[in-house]
Design goal:
By secondary structure, this protein is mainly beta. It has a single domain, classed as Jelly Rolls. The protein has three helices and 13 strands, in the order ααβββββββββββαββ. Strands 1, 3, 4, 6, 9, 10, 11 and 13 form an eight-stranded antiparallel β-sheet that branches. It has a five-stranded antiparallel β-sheet with strand order 2-5-12-7-8, with no helix packed on it. A hairpin with a 2-residue loop joins β10 and β11. The longest helix has 12 residues.
Length: 230
């Protein structure tokens, strides 16, 4: 935990740079994004669109500084969107601590003890020095990428996912990772062969909360944007 605490302090203290010339500032939408139906899930100053899993508020171990929100130490708990989403497109930047692990789950149902009992997880971790064979950007235990486009721990990565009944995809730093159809025969076979087979409600819902995981390691997020098809 000492390593996490030191890294957390460094993350919160460091200043952020704006996106490249011509792009929107951090945690803001361009005119084109607004016209295309994108909205922000984090405006740089407030987590009022999020709460802890199976709770009303949010732990103070999730902190905001310089336009970034960070799980600063273990015990902050998983956080979920207050809204539920079915089909959606989401993009965010994440920065993981050395050896760190986290995740993004979707279609999460709060009826179960843990969010990953119901929601498929897009892995987030330090691929070079992490301790899980599942790599960042993969759909945990179900769909693995054949490439690794992640940047090292401590640097920002951009994850883009599309979730719809017709097909889902994950893209890391502009590189397409995986494509799959949730609920297809291939999906069902992969779930049956995974650790999730013992959870009767895993992957069954086609609407639910988006969840960011407390895996005990420091992780930061910014530029969290979502678009729901009309």
């Amino acid at each position: 935990m000492q390593k996490n605490a030191l890294f957390s302090a460094a993350l919160i203290a460091c200043s952020l740079t704006l996106a490249s010339a011509g792009d929107a500032p951090l945690n803001a939408l361009t005119a084109a994004e607004q016209a295309d139906g994108w909205t922000l899930l984090f405006d740089g100053t407030s987590l009022d669109q999020w709460r802890n899993y199976q709770a009303e508020g949010i732990s103070d171990k999730w902190k905001i500084a310089d336009g970034v929100f960070t799980l600063t130490e273990a015990g902050g708990g998983n956080i979920i969107t207050k809204e539920m989403y079915g089909a959606f497109e989401l993009t965010l930047d994440f920065r993981i601590a050395p050896e760190g692990n986290s995740g993004l789950m979707y279609h999460v149902d709060e009826e179960e003890k843990q969010p990953w009992f119901t929601g498929p997880e897009v892995q987030i971790q330090d691929n070079a020095h992490g301790h899980d064979p599942q790599k960042a950007g993969w759909l945990y235990q179900l769909y693995a990428a054949e490439v690794d486009a992640t940047k090292p721990a401590g640097e920002w990565n951009t994850l883009h996912i599309v979730i719809s009944p017709e097909g889902c995809s994950h893209t890391m730093n502009g590189v397409k990772y995986v494509e799959y159809v949730k609920g297809s025969a291939d999906w069902d076979a992969k779930v049956a062969a995974s650790k999730f087979s013992k959870f009767a409600n895993f992957g069954k819902a086609f609407s639910g909360h988006i969840c960011l995981q407390d895996h005990g390691n420091v992780v930061s997020f910014r530029n969290v944007k979502i678009k729901v098809p009309k």
